[in-house]
Design goal:
By secondary structure, the protein is mostly helical. The chain has four helices and four strands; from the N terminus they run H-H-H-H-E-E-E-E.
């Protein structure tokens, strides 16, 4: 019979570090959760409740973002950083950030649309905006 061991605090911390490394390559929480569950099963560790998996993946994504952001913005001077920050505009009661100005300023793009590659000027994608409760 296969002996499974419990998911304990030391495992939580270890998997958080492992997931943080994966979060440097993806921003998709479902991808992290899939990898975590696969790894837990292969290591013969009891899969914790979904709330624990969700929290663990969320922490890893947040930590990954905190690692990536300074790497991307470090070479920018103060003026370039201020211009970049000005492009990111939070939308009122949503958890969505949209870019302002840029290529949509010169086209007929409505909120939530992303311009195409320029071949016909038609939008080719839409942003999904989740309302916070």
């Amino acid at each position: 019979m296969l002996e499974r061991r419990p998911f304990t605090v030391p495992e939580y911390r270890g998997f958080r570090g492992w997931l943080t490394q994966l979060a440097l390559h993806t921003h998709k929480p479902v991808a992290l959760a899939d990898q975590l569950i696969e790894r837990l099963r292969s290591d013969q560790i009891i899969v914790p409740p979904i709330q624990v998996v969700d929290r663990l993946c969320g922490e890893a994504l947040a930590r990954g973002t905190r690692v990536v952001y300074p790497v991307l913005t470090e070479p920018l001077d103060d003026d370039a950083r201020a211009r970049l920050d000005a492009l990111l505009t939070p939308l009122g009661d949503t958890r969505t950030i949209r870019t302002s100005g840029g290529s949509c300023a010169n086209r007929n793009c409505s909120l939530g649309q992303v311009p195409s590659d320029g071949s016909n000027g038609e939008p080719n994608a839409y942003l999904l905006m989740a309302r916070s409760k």
